[in-house]
């Protein structure tokens, strides 16, 4: 049985360090046998979550986003660190996917008992350790089984080559291993 993972970058920027880090994680997950969908933010343009807005009419992208979260068995996430925390883009997506959005009764949470790993890259010297810690806590609160391993890339402006690959072989192996670990853990939980 193949597991399906959703890969999410906390940055929508085209040349995002976290998209590049996520690519290594995705490579590892696929090598371990998982199918992986990489979330494309351009397909999911969402306003800030607001119950008044939701009551007036659910934004078209919200149910699509929630469907991507629901279809996944687990989540590969790479997050930047913005002012000591994970970005609003990621928080907003997590919030919209947690809403009912017209689900039938008993549909349940898109997060409960799903697996997740969190990594991060930032130009600063501390990597994304604070945003990773915060996001892991939120995912756990939502009901995800968050694997303990993580990868934090500091000085990210110098960490990737012209093709977007991680220059440091050890970091590349760690990122690929994180993706593979999620694939294996998710597979084990589904059996």
UniProtKB/TrEMBL annotation:
Its cofactor is FMN. The keyword Flavoprotein applies. GO terms for cellular component: cytosol. Pfam families: FMN_red (PF03358). Residues 5-156 form the NADPH-dependent FMN reductase-like domain. InterPro entries: Flavoprotein-like_sf (IPR029039), FMN_Rdtase-like_dom (IPR005025), NAD(P)H-dep_reductase (IPR050712). Signal peptide: none annotated. Keywords: Flavoprotein, FMN. GO terms for molecular function: FMN binding; oxidoreductase activity. This is NADPH-dependent oxidoreductase. It comes from Stagnimonas aquatica.
